[in-house]
Design a protein that fits this description.
Keywords: Membrane, Transmembrane, Transmembrane helix. The chain is mostly helical. It contains five helices and no strands. It is elongated and about 55 Å long.
């Protein structure tokens, strides 16, 4: 008997329709940025851990970390480049002023991190050429700062996607 009452309950209330959603679709190039970014996040952190391990074991030289440092710079450059391409494609789409501020901060930080990764690579080369512990410690400090920067950059990117739905098709396919 109670079920019959609930079955009629929908007739007692007016149907409220949601306001029409703005349909936003993004170019396919937007899909390139996220996979590239993952390498730019993980490589500085991995290098930092490798270098701290080497420091604790007393190892000074290492060609592998130079190679990974070079890959790190390439990955940060690729993330910045794909981010720039994506930004150029989506900046004309309607987003809130707050989301736009985060987007511009995200873009500027990406360029800054690329330049900083070049500095970190330079410190690695100097530590190998000059063989001074001072440059090795500066390199490790640079990796720590770069790791913090890419983590913050990832946080900003996450905010853009999950808080503001930037780069995510809304109301579309």
């Amino acid at each position: 008997m109670n079920l019959w009452f609930f079955a009629l309950a929908h007739e007692a209330h007016a149907v409220v329709q949601s306001p029409p959603m703005l349909q936003v679709t993004y170019p396919q190039v937007v899909k390139i940025h996220p996979p590239v970014v993952h390498f730019a996040i993980v490589l500085p952190i991995l290098l930092f851990l490798i270098e701290v391990y080497k420091l604790l074991r007393g190892e000074e030289k290492g060609g592998v970390s130079l190679l990974v440092s070079l890959l790190m710079v390439i990955s940060v450059a690729s993330a910045a480049l794909t981010g720039w391409v994506v930004h150029e494609r989506i900046e004309s789409l309607p987003i809130t002023a707050e989301a736009e501020a985060v987007l511009h901060l995200h873009e500027r930080l990406g360029i800054t991190l690329f330049v900083f990764s070049l500095l970190v690579l330079t410190l690695k080369v100097m530590s190998l050429k000059i063989s001074r512990r001072f440059f090795s410690l500066l390199y490790i400090l640079g990796l720590l700062l770069l790791s913090g920067g890419v983590l913050y950059q990832g946080y900003l990117g996450g905010r853009l996607v999950y808080q503001y739905s930037v780069g995510v098709p809304v109301g579309g396919r």
